[in-house]
TrEMBL record:
GO terms for molecular function: metal ion binding; metalloendopeptidase inhibitor activity; protease binding. It comes from the Eukaryota. Residues 1-26 form the signal peptide. The keyword Ubl conjugation does not apply. This is Metalloproteinase inhibitor 2. The keyword Secreted applies. It comes from Salvelinus namaycush (Lake trout). Residues 27-139 form the NTR domain. GO terms for cellular component: extracellular matrix; extracellular space. The gene is LOC120044683. One of its GO terms (biological process) is negative regulation of membrane protein ectodomain proteolysis.
Amino acid sequence: MTRYVSSCFITLLVLFLWRVEDIAEACKCSPPHPQQAFCDADIVIRAKVVGKKALSNEIKYDIQQIKMFKCPNQVIHAIYTASSPAACGVTLEINKEYLFTGKLETGRMHVTLCGYNPPWEDVSAAQKNGLTRLYKSGCDCKIIHCNSLPCPISTTDACLWMDWGTNNGQNLACIKSNGSCAWK
């Protein structure tokens, strides 16, 4: 009987260790540059959160859309996010305005921690200018985030983003001019 119990224990331990990587998965991503988030998003809007409802595996935030920066001409009344930050879900405050960059999936807007969804009050004047004028013209460029030196860049259609501990680079836009991309 002891060998049977021991065998069951070892089997359970092996199964647990095999699945521990899946259990320990958490949201992993680097914060994107505002322009890259704009270009990668299906929808970019300024909106006020007016309600919240927990669904089975996600949270639905009711919103009042204030301004549309990028979207296939539709009004968004709600955004959806995963139910926890570990699953890349965004936590929002009721009666607060945000800039949302998200994906359109089956007619619904989804946002994640891997997107760019700051409170509107934290969006700088330069970023607001980028949203209305510059970012769209720079979507042919790729912004490469450099975390440590050396940061090789071997293409003319990219800008190197080395914003170590500052937010200065978030106020710039990467724009293509004369066949190559550069910070503006």
